Amino acid sequence: MQTLGIKTPSPDGAATDTEGTRKGPGRDLSPLLAGAATAVGAVGALLALIDSASPLRGPCTLFFLLMAPAVAIAAALRGLDPFGRAVCALAGAVVVDMLVAQGMLAVHRWSVHGGVVAVTVLSLAVLLLVLLRERISGKRAQE
Questions:
Q1: Which residues contact 49 (CB under 8 A, 6 or more apart)?
Q2: What pTM does this model have?
Q3: For the chain, which ranges sit under pLDDT 50?
Q4: Can you tell me the distance from the alpha carbon of 104 to that of 90, in angstroms, rounded to the nearest whole number?
Q5: CA–CA separation, 63 vs 40, rounded Å?
Q6: I need a surface site. Which of 12, 45, 72, 136 has the fewest CB within 10 A?
Q7: Helix, strand, or coil here: 22?
């Protein structure tokens, strides 16, 4: 036997969905957070590339070096659940950063600029490969 509850409207008149969360403008913050994260990452890369003496250079650059590869890897892992995808993407980002650092140390060419550029290029390459794979698989599915 199933008990059905009666839903009463909220006192302020805002609509709610079946889970009790409110709907309406300003309720979904994910695009705002994604934009803010992109801005912080871009500022970090820019501050590292221009050798700024700002105290924000370190944290923003670290954020960029972790998030750029993590976003690219997360885009490639769409089949996983969100928590598993986040953990794998963050672990993959650390691996990419460590491989870039190890490669620069192995060839005796350590450089902050080179590291930021190498991580950016690798992240963009992974992201472009994911987009290319989706485009190819989408065309084949239509045929």
A1: 113, 116, 117
A2: 0.73
A3: none
A4: 21
A5: 8
A6: 12
A7: strand
